[in-house]
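User: Continuing from earlier, I have the next pair ready.

Assistant: Great, send them over.

User: Here they are, in order.

Assistant: Folding the first of the pair now:
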Amino acid sequence: MSTLPPCPACNSEYTYEDGTNLVCPECAHEWSATDNEAAGDDTKVIKDSVGNVLQDGDTITVIKDLKVKGSSLVVKVGTKVKGIRLVDGDHDIDCKIDGIGAMKLKSEFVRKV
C-alpha cells in the first residue's frame, strides 16, 4: 500500500515519486513532494480596494468613474452592482450593470457594500 498522497488534479491513487516531484500517471500532473500540503490550496483570494474579501453574489460600489472601452458610456462613481461573479484574469469581477449591460471590472476599482 502506498503512503503517497493522491493526485490533487484528478484524485488518482496511483502517484509515484520522480526525484523530488510526485507524478500522476493518469493525468500527467506533477507537483513538489515538499509542497504536498499546499497542493490542494489553489483558491485565489480576491479583495476590493480597501482589503475586504469578495465572494460570488456580493454587492459592490464603483469608487472611480470608469470609461467603457469602445463606447462613449461611463460607469459613474457610486454605481451599485449586485450579484457579482468572480473569475480568473486581469478583470476578475464579472457583472451586469443597469443601463450598460454585462462587463468585467477590476477589483481595485470597487468597494464591498
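And the other member of the pair:
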Amino acid sequence: MNKPLILVVEDDAPVRNLITTTLKLHDYRFLTAANGETALMEASSHNPDIILLDLGLPDIDGIDIIRQIRSWSMTPIIVISARSEDTDKIEALDNGADDYLTKPFSVDELLARLRVTQRRLSFMQETMSAQDSVFLNGPLKIDFSAGCAYLNGESLALTPTEYKLLCLMARNAGKVLTHTYITEHVWGSSFKSDVASLRVFMATLRKKLEAAPDAPQQIQTHIGVGYRMLRL
C-alpha cells in the first residue's frame, strides 16, 4: 500500500531539505512549496493526504492558508513553526490545524506525528468503506458495490465515463475538485490536459442528474478551477 502523499510547505531551504530527506528515507511520497500561493495551488491540484505547514511564509500567513484550505478540504494539517507561544498554537488549531510541532524539532518526533495522523486516516477510510457502500444525496442514490446509480428511485442510464465521474464527485462531495485532479483519476495522466473533453462529459452527466425543471443542482461549476458536488 502506498504511503500518503505529503505536501511540505516551508520557505526555509535547509528546513525543507531536512523534512524532504527524512520523508524520502522513509519512503513517503511528497510535494514541496516555498510560499503560500504555490501551497494552495499544489493542495488544490493534487489533494495531498497530509500537509506539513510552516506559518511564517513570505507571501501569505500560514493561518490564512489553513483557513483557505479548510474552506474546501479536510486534509490533515500539521503545523511546523517557530512560533512557540500558546496563543499561536491555539489560533492555528482553532482555525483548523490538526497538530502543532514547534521548531526546532526532532526527526523522530516528526515521524511519530505522521504515524499518528496515518493511523487516524486509515481508521477514517476503513469506517467510510464499511458504512458508505451506498451514497445518498437528495434524490440521488449510488450503490457502489452494485455499480448502479438512481435518481428519484429510477435507474440512471450512464456511460462508464459518466459513472466514474459521478462516483469520484460523490466520494468527494462538498470538495472542489480541480480539472487536473478529475482527469488524472478518471482517465489517467495522459488525459489530464484535455479539459474540453471533461466539460463535455460533465455537461451530459449534469443533464441526466438535473433533467427535471425542479431538480436540485447536484454539481457546481467553479469557473477555471473545477467542479464540486453539492451536499443536498
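Worth noting for the second one:
The first strand starts at residue 5 and ends at 9. The chain has a mean pLDDT of 86.
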